Amino acid sequence: ASLSGDRLVRAAALGPGEVQRVLLWGLAALVGSWLLSRLWGLLLPALRWVELCCPTVQAGMLLGLWVLYALLGRLVGSPDPSTRLDAAVRSLERKVEELRRRQK
After folding, report:
1. Domain for residue 25, yes or no?
2. What is the domain count for the chain?
3. Helix, strand or coil for residue 83?
4. Is the sign of the CA dihedral 9, 15, 18, 20 positive or negative?
5. Cα separation of 86 and 104, whole Å?
6. 11: Cβ–Cβ under 8 A, 6 or more apart, which residues?
């Protein structure tokens, strides 16, 4: 089934509030990208200097990155793989039982 042009235009039509929201998010992304690039430009020379300076500082930086990674992982809350696996196994068990009933 193909979409008619009118239906496509109606589906893509945005109200003034939605257009404003999209523009604000775009502006925020642009400013955020610019700020991150400036921050990266300032931090990169400092990190190179510290990297050459001392192995203890390197270990501390790696530990800090690991802690940051762990904290962000907790905040995002990735789904537990064991629960997904359990759900998949239960689904397959139901399908097997259904196939067995059909064969009888």
Report:
1. yes
2. 1
3. helix
4. positive
5. 27
6. 3
